[in-house]
Specification:
The chain has 164 residues and is α+β, with helices and mostly antiparallel strands. 28% of the residues lie in helices and 23% in strands. It is built from four helices and five strands; from the N terminus they run αβααββββα. Strands 1, 2, 3, 4 and 5 form a five-stranded antiparallel β-sheet that branches. A hairpin with a 6-residue loop joins β2 and β3. The chain is flat and about 105 Å long.
């Protein structure tokens, strides 16, 4: 009887250790995940860009291709960097955000370098599955049959028919 008691105690210890290991592995899976998105900021490289000294080629050689370029106004290159934290199966949250804007003059030389942070980020919340529009709501049958009789009707701008 003493031998069976020892074997059962060993089995309980083994199962307890296995359960403890499973809990530790599961808790490790709940750790926060950190992701770098976009341009990875290197303070030494970004501070080396000097207005009046650098040009488009030297900026691209130092920082690489920009995240995007301006389409309107003075030519500007934007380097966007975000660091997000998230737990598994949860929407990521922005922890750090930085935009480096390098503005060029018409000759292609650096005119200014500006850095902005998360304070200029605009959060948009969609309004359901439909885009709101101005005007009245039309139903299915009104869309389907709404133009019947409107072609050539007086006051619609269609040419009036001249009888025989």
């Amino acid at each position: 009887m003493d031998e069976t008691k020892r074997n059962s105690m060993k089995a309980v210890r083994f199962l307890g250790a296995g359960a403890l290991m499973a809990c530790l592995l599961a808790a490790g899976g709940c750790a926060s995940i950190t992701e770098n998105r976009g341009f990875i900021v290197d303070r030494t490289l970004t501070s080396s860009i000097q207005p009046g000294i650098d040009n488009k080629q030297s900026v691209q050689g130092t920082l690489g291709h920009p995240s995007f370029e301006s389409q309107f106004g003075p030519p500007t290159w934007y380097y966007v960097s975000s660091v997000t934290h998230r737990k598994p199966f949860v929407k990521p949250r922005i922890a750090q955000h930085q935009v480096l804007a390098v503005r060029f003059d018409p000759a292609g030389n650096v005119a200014s370098v500006e850095t902005s942070g998360v304070d200029k980020v605009v959060y948009l919340s969609p309004d359901g599955d439909e885009t709101p529009t101005v005007g009245r709501e039309r139903g299915f049958f009104e869309d389907l049959f709404g133009n019947i009789g409107a072609v050539g009707a007086p006051g619609t701008g269609a040419p009036a028919s001249t009888g025989p």
